[in-house]
Each structure stands twice: as C-alpha cells, then as structure tokens.
Design brief:
With about 160 residues, the protein is mainly beta. About 10% of the residues lie in helices and about 50% in strands.
C-alpha cells in the first residue's frame, strides 16, 4: 500500500511539474436595465438578482471560468463553470499557428436529452498579448440543429493565461 501511495504521489507531482496549465475566462457584455425609481415605479422592470437598476452596460469577466491541461503541443482538455453552476467539458486541438478547433460538452445533471444535444463545436484563434497571456476570439455553434432545424452560433471573446 505504501508503494502505491508513493507511486501515485510521484506521478501527480510529475504531471503537475511537467504540464502546462491554463486558466481561462469568457468576457461578455451585460445589458443594463432601464433607470427608474427603484422604490416601486410600476413601469420599471427589475430582474431577479438586480440590486439597483442602471442605464449603463457593463462587462463581465466571470460568466464562464475554467481550467485547462495541455496534454501535448496540440491538445488541451479542460473544464469550465458558468455563473449558474453549469459545467462544461472541453477539448481544444490546435490546427495551425494559433488556430484551433474546439468541442464543448455541456454537462446537464439528470437530463433526458441525447448527448449530442449538449455538444458545441467551434473554431478560434489565440493572440499572444504578453508572455503567457492570450486573447482568444472564437465562434461556437451546436453540433445538432434544434427543432426548427436551425443552429444559431455565438461569437465569444475569452482571455487565457498559460502557466
């Protein structure tokens, strides 16, 4: 048992020391709510979670935060979590010179949907801004069309840092 524990500890230390880890986040625009009398104006719409309405839009860098493990020069696997406790597993494969393809599985607990309903495919590019800091514009779309036969994708801007 001691040999197994020692071997596992050595393996874990080697993986951590030799691997390249990344932390990443998606930057998104948060639409402001209309300014009004906060004390109960009838024509004011206040959304759940709002503490005070505002006219200004803001940027949120914590909507989707994750960590990735660089398996080799071309492949990264990771996991992300968005602000609503939804988890995603991702794989990123570098195609050429900073251009990469990605596959994201949106983990839905106790879901009765097919696994392909929760898969998104995308493509992106990593710009090295400074040392290990990268800006990653990317486009993702569902792998399977919805009931109407449409696949509406989204453009995302993310920031990552490689250790």
């Amino acid at each position: 048992m001691n040999k197994l524990f020692l071997t596992m500890t050595l393996l874990l230390c080697t993986v951590i020391a030799s691997a390249q880890w990344s932390v990443m986040t998606t930057i998104s625009k948060v639409e402001g709510t209309p300014a009004c009398d906060f004390m109960g104006s009838e024509d004011c719409e206040v959304y759940e979670g709002d503490t005070k309405p505002t006219e200004e839009d803001s940027w949120n860098a914590t909507d989707k935060i994750g960590i990735g493990y660089q398996v080799n020069e071309k492949l990264m696997v990771g996991a992300t979590m968005d602000g609503e406790d939804k988890y995603e597993l991702l794989g990123r494969y570098e195609l050429m010179n900073g251009l990469w393809g990605t596959c994201v599985y949106n983990y839905v607990k106790d879901s009765e949907t097919e696994p392909m309903d929760n898969v998104e495919l995308g493509i992106g590019y990593s710009f090295n801004v400074w040392k290990g800091l990268y800006v990653d514009p990317n486009y993702t779309m569902p792998a399977k069309a919805d009931e109407a036969g449409e696949r509406e994708g989204s453009f995302n801007m993310s920031v990552s840092y490689k250790f």
